[in-house]
Amino acid sequence: MKPNGKAQIKIDCEHQIGKIRKLHGTNCAGPIHSAAPAADVSEDLRALDIPLTRLHDAPLIDSGMHLVDTDRVFPLFYLNEKDPQNYFFAHTDDYIANCLNYGSKVLYRLGPSIEHSKKSYFTMPPLDYDKWGEICGQIIAHYNEGWASGFHHNIEYWEIWNEPNLGPQMWTGTWTEYLKLYVATAKRLKARFPNIKVGGPALAGNNEEKIREMLSECRTQVAPLDFFSWHGYVRNPADAIATPAMVKALLDEYGFENTELHYNEWHYYPGSWSMARKSRTYRASYDKVLTGSDSAAFNCAVLSGLQDTPIMMANYYTGTVTPGSSWGIFDSTSLLPNKNYFSLMAFNLMTKYETRLAADVPQNRNLWVLAGRNSAGGIAVLVSCFKGSERHIHLDFSGIKIDGSKVKVSLVDSDNDLAPVKQVKTSGSTVTLEKPVGSAVFLVEMEK
Fold this sequence. Notes:
This protein is α/β, with parallel strands linked by helices. The strands form two sheets. The chain has a ten-stranded mixed β-sheet. An eight-stranded parallel beta barrel has the order 2-3-4-5-6-7-8-9, surrounded by five helices. The longest helix has 18 residues, at about 175-190. The chain is built from 13 helices and 18 strands.
């Protein structure tokens, strides 16, 4: 970026560099308790074309529902796991139907949701690993093979537990005990259902020591690891974008070259977790931060930057309504889409221009650009300005004379929700974007 507050970006319209990948997966499906039309967000979710929904923490959002978690689907561990009457599938059946009905595929997380209570109720290691694995197998059979009046959804991804390195909120056992559970369960499920993909550990953070220990154990025990998953709540897009290369290098080192990488929980978070747990006032101060323009620009920056990594899927936390919190993409009171929703919408629209074009971006950590062309010859550019000081962004489309009447610019910032910019400045091959103060996302679309 130049000292005068201008950023010059060159779009090479003749240089194709692959495909733009749909990495905007989410966590949590649309709620099933939305009986009133005003509470139904299904059409809003359908408009996002979400590629993959990870089913995790569903009972925290659909309160009172027996959803997804292994202990809620099979609540009495001492009962016979072969008897369909000992399972409660009804709520999860409807939850998954919601998800499939608005067009998303499913990743099913086996195990419990996070517990924010003083006591641990469901995050203990199973009393019998083999029986727990058998219960998981019956759940898969219900959704993929029709067992217990079930379905043939062909759910591909099955994740074993969540954040076992987090502590009693998610796992009261040791890391070694989790690895034992993973190996036993992954082997059992893959042997019974060879066409599914099993993985984990949904690691909290990217602790290299933990990753190495898991990969070593899986290699030694010849345990399947179809996908490796981890989570990140960070303050800078560059931190999220840098991690996949590190994870990929470790997977390759241990012989897991074909294992998919899933960054399956992520969200902008510039605060202190310890302070948030101690102080309601501090936590409340982040409500607007987590759903504001900084968060929106962060989201599009991450989804743009991940295009240059070996990531297979990323799942935003969360892609639904989260009552009493700011982690969702809808206002928790009005249920109207918030800035995070419109950032995912901007990225989704960008994916319609699937052939990626090269973009020369100045060395500026606060600016991310994604350019593409669609089958009709139209061109689009997604520009994410995360806390940048630039006020004027010049997009130079090499070799193209711009017809201003065919240019549409949409803006997400503190005052706009992917709203059209009324006056767009063009000159020759250049489109000039005037950025307001603060973070912003621009979607520039040009007809052929």
